[in-house]
Write a structure and sequence with these properties.
8 strands; Rossmann fold; 9 helices; single chain; 243 residues; alpha/beta; 12% strand; DNA polymerase, domain 1; two-stranded antiparallel ribbon; six-stranded parallel β-sheet
């Protein structure tokens, strides 16, 4: 696995920003178990793992709302607020069924070794994000983490991704994700998007805007070089709020 070092003469500084759930880690089994644990306490029928995967992507509040809607309970605001809080209480410690996708650690080693700054931009709240990264020994790779509750908005609003980019200080950036939400976030932020095809995506691969795609993490460093290596674009423009 090789990538050209960022220290090459004349090379602008680089960063790769990653989505988390469905991109670096398969967390659906833990999310599924945590949700069913909470729902069981309310006498609500459990969900299958496949159903839980369908609901992931827009943050914890949307996940809970989708769960309740699937059981015809989406009009009960009090129940929704209670279930969301209980889910968040369980979610922070829901790490034991989660695994990195194959090749993730070697890929991060290769990118970091080449001087590429690494960051996370996820709709997962900050506390569970920090918990699972620490549990999987991945926290050491990321100096920048923007979670679903870091700002007042979440992806696909571009602000979280622009915040992460600003914090890396890099001039050339690619965003790596697995979903429709990630593709739209990249598009609106004006950042090249690399699609991991083995995550929680529901839309056909060819229907998502992308600079490239990969199914194995060993291919990502070369994809980063291909997308950014020949680019002669100006640095990413950051919003005034991030300056």
């Amino acid at each position: 696995m090789r990538i050209e070092a960022g220290s090459t003469s004349g090379r602008r500084s680089r960063a790769v920003i990653f989505d988390l759930d469905g991109t670096l880690i398969d967390s659906a089994p833990d999310i599924h178990a945590a949700a069913n644990r909470v729902l069981e306490g309310h006498g609500i029928a459990p969900f299958t793992l496949a159903e839980a995967r369908e609901f992931v992507g827009h943050g914890a509040a949307v996940f809970v709302r989708r769960c309740l809607a699937a059981r015809g309970l989406d009009d009960d605001n009090a129940l929704q607020a209670q279930v969301l809080q209980q889910f968040l209480d369980v979610y922070e410690g829901a790490v034991h069924l989660t695994q990195p996708y194959p090749g993730v650690t070697a890929c991060l080693d290769a990118l970091a070794g080449a001087g590429v700054a690494l960051g996370i931009c996820t709709n997962k709240p900050e506390a569970p994000t920090a918990s699972v990264l620490a549990h999987l020994d991945l926290a050491r790779y990321f100096n920048v983490i923007v979670g679903g509750d870091t700002l007042s908005v979440r992806k696909p609003d571009p602000a979280p991704l622009l915040r992460a980019i600003s914090q890396t200080g890099a001039e050339e950036v690619i965003f790596v994700g697995d979903s429709e939400v990630d593709a739209e976030t990249s598009r609106t932020a004006g950042v090249p998007f690399a699609l991991f095809t083995e995550g929680y995506r529901k839309t056909p691969v060819d229907d998502l805007p992308q600079a490239g795609r990969f199914s194995q993490f060993e291919a990502l460093p070369a994809l980063v070089d291909r997308v950014l290596g020949d680019r002669d674009a100006p640095p990413v423009v950051r919003s005034g709020a991030d300056c």
